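Hey,

Quick one before I head out. I ran the complex with pyridoxal-5'-phosphate overnight. Inputs first:
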Amino acid sequence: MPKATETLLEIDLNALNSNYKYITSKIAPSTKMLAVVKAYAYGNDAVIVAKELETLGVSYFAVAYTNEGETLRNASIKTPILVLHPLPVNFETIVNRCLEPSIYSRKTLKEFIEFAENHNQSNYPIHLKFNTGLNRLGFNHNDLLWIAETLSNTKSVKVKSIFSHLAASEDLKLKEFTQGQIKDFREISEELIAKLGYKPLLHCANTSGIINYPEAHFNMVRSGIGLYGFGNDPEENKHLKPVATLKTVISQIHVVQKNQSVGYNRGFIAETVTRSATLPIGHADGIPRSYGKGKGWVTIAGKKAPILGNVCMDMIMVDVTNITCEEGDEAIIFGPSASAEDLAASINTISYELITAISQRVKRVIRKN
Ligand SMILES: *Cc1c(COP(=O)(O)O)cnc(C)c1O
């Protein structure tokens, strides 16, 4: 890859291909793959990622919000798109753009049916979301009878899938809890299928669910983080390749004398002569202030350069006292050679939060051999 001459988020489509193949190798050929491309495909670029996955033969996409689905339709994505978190105000766009809503409550089911009937829809695909322990979105087991009765009174919608979401599929200490969720989901779907008289698709596994719970694959799996190269597990990470590399360049180098300071509010005070490199990336680009004062770092010439003082809106200063480098040299924030998981862990967060936060002002570049 060419050296960065400004701040760039490189999106490696070969890595995406390789991750897709690895994850699909974990599921039966008859199991469908849904790719989660919410939040700009986890901070990358939803359209470019979705187009690539479409050529690989993905069965479904999921986004969180309706406008994210609209963006994909505007880019001529034809694959079915599940909207995980629609609100009644979005129903018109959902139907106009052939998006498929997750229906998670009595209110959303009633209002969607009303909307679909008023717009002369028949068998409009909906996805029923059940809460099996996350207590976030979803019907409960005791809504089953009401759902079946409500659906039997309309031809406007058809249940395309029944699904749930695991709360802790990456945490094997909570295996019993997860197995309980899977069991509940199995029971709920069996009961509902018996009442509906037809078999919608069943799905409940996210990336770590795919890896840790083969018994939870059902008819489809939903992968997000794995496609972008993180497996929530060091063993799995060996098989996955980070899709995103965030890199920048050294704008200026300062030699800071003893007792001089660096950055706002004198966040760093030099105890000895310190070489400081200024980089054009800051909290407005998605590097939170909590990485400041030595918690976070960048990699320059293969060495860790800790952040000096406070993160500014558009810049950070890093310690290059012991690194041979000059103005114009490249600095890597994260990528295949500088783990986003490790960097995120330095401020007690997870790769998901770091990669999805890279702001839209950072230029995206696509790499594909
Ligand atoms: C975000 C999300 C996923 C993807 O989870 P990963 O851990 O990134 O694979 C799957 N299902 C639902 C309902 C989600 O919200």
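The chain has a mean pLDDT of 97.

Talk tomorrow,
K.
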